[in-house]
Amino acid sequence: xxxxxxxxxxxxxxxxxxxxxxxxxxxxxxxxxxxxxxxxxxxxxxxxxxxxxxxxxxxxxxxxxxxxxxxxxxxxxxxxxxxxxxxxxxxxxxxxxxxxxxxxxxxxxxxxxxxxxxxxxxxxxxxxxxxxxxxxxxxxxxxxxxxxxxxxxxxxxxxxxxxxxxxxxxxxxxxxxxxxxxxxxxxxxxxxxxxxxxxxxxxxxxxxxxxxxxxxxxxxxxxxxxxxxxxxxxxxxxxxxxxxxxxxxxxxxxxxxxxxxxxxxxxxxxxxxxxxxxxxxxxxxxxxxxxxxxxxxxxxxxxxxxxxxxxxxxxxxxxxxxxxx
Length: 325
Hints:
Elements: H1 6-13, E1 17-22, H2 46-59, E2 65-70, H3 79-92, E3 98-104, H4 112-121, E4 125-130, H5 134-140, H6 150-161, E5 168-175, H7 183-194, E6 200-206, H8 223-239, E7 244-245, E8 261-264, E9 269-271, E10 285-287, E11 293-295, H9 297-303, H10 305-309, H11 312-316
C-alpha cells in the first residue's frame, strides 16, 4: 500500500489544482447485479452544464492542473453534455494548464467513431469493467433489456486497439467466488487480444458490496481468502508478463478527502463520494447557474477531516466512520 506523503496533502489544498467528477446523466443501459445506483436523475440540464462551464471559466486562469472525470450512470448516454463542456474547456485553456480527462464507462457505446471524438476532445483515459468470460460477464452485466453486453464491449475495444493515438484503457476485472475458477480463461483471451498494446492494462480487484439491492446474494470473497486469491492472480499475471495494477497501485489519498475535488451530479447537486451517492452527508451543496458553488461547509469538511486529523484511514477512505460524526 502506498504511503500518503506530504506532497499528497499539499496537492489536496492547492488553489491551482481542481478535480471535477461530472455525471452528465445518472441513467444507465446496463443493470449490473452489484450496482448500487438508483437511476433517479436523467440527463444534465442546460442550466447545470452552463453553470459548470461558468465555474471552469472563473477558475481556469489560476489553475495549473485541471482534472475532469466523467462518471455516471453511463456517461455516454449524454454525449452532447460531454462534448459541450470539453469543447468549451479546450477553447479557453491556457498554455500552462495541464488539462487531464478520463471516463468510467461500461464500454457498450464506445464505438470507434465515438472514441475518436472523445479522444479529440482530450478524454484519453478510460476504465471499463469485465466480470470474467462471456457467459459469466453477461450474467452479471446484462443490459436493461436482459441481453448480454460482453460482445459489444469486446468488439469496441478491438476496434479501439486498431486506432492510432495516445490513450490508456484500464480493463477492470472483478474477482468473486463465482467467477474465480474461470478468471484465467478471461486473462488468456485478454492477453491474446491486448497484451502487445501498452495502451491497455489489466486492473483486478475483489468484488465489493457497495449498498446495492443484491448485496446479500453476491459471492464476495471473504476477508480471510482475499490475500490468497489476489496473490495467486498476481503471480499468474507476472509469470505470463502481463501488465497489471492492483488497489495498492492507485493513489493513496481518496479524491473525496481533498478540498479541491468536487463531484457534480446531473441535477446540479455536489457530492464528494462516488459510491455513497444517496448518503445524506454526501450532499455537500449545489452548483448555481452563475458558476458559483453553494456549499454545506459542515458536510463538506466531514469528508476532508483527514487533512486536519492526519488519519491515514480517513485520508484513504473518508466514508469510514462518517456516520458517527
